Amino acid sequence: MMDVRESFQLVEHSADFQAWKKKNKDVYLSSFFQMVDIRKESGVQVDFYSPTTDTITSFVVENGKAILSQKNAQILKKEHEKIAPLDLDAVTVSREQALHDVRNIFGERYAQEQPVKFILILQQGEQAVWNISAITSAFRVLTVKINAVDGRILDEDFKPTHTGEVGYIC
Question: Which pTM was predicted?
Answer without folding.
Answer: 0.88
